[in-house]
TrEMBL record:
This is Protein translocase subunit SecE. It comes from Flexivirga endophytica. Keywords: Cell membrane, Membrane, Protein transport, Translocation, Transmembrane, Transmembrane helix, Transport. NCBIfam families: secE_bact. The keyword Cell inner membrane does not apply.
Amino acid sequence: MSTSTASTRGSADEKPKGGIFGTILLFIRQVIDELRKVVRPTRDELTSYTIALIVFLAILMAYVVGLDQLLVHLVDWTFA
């Protein structure tokens, strides 16, 4: 499997030719090169990340709801 490097595709500080269209094409080429480097998670990793996120959000939500209820009771006690 061959990967493209800066030496084969051009360096990052390469001056694009063709004005604005050359700049746009260089940008698109660099975006595609970077997207090829992305490592996508496996199904098991994605499942575990999703579960961890849901658990974290549930804990955070419970904390915020608890603080809200505490402040509601504190305000009711203070101004009642």
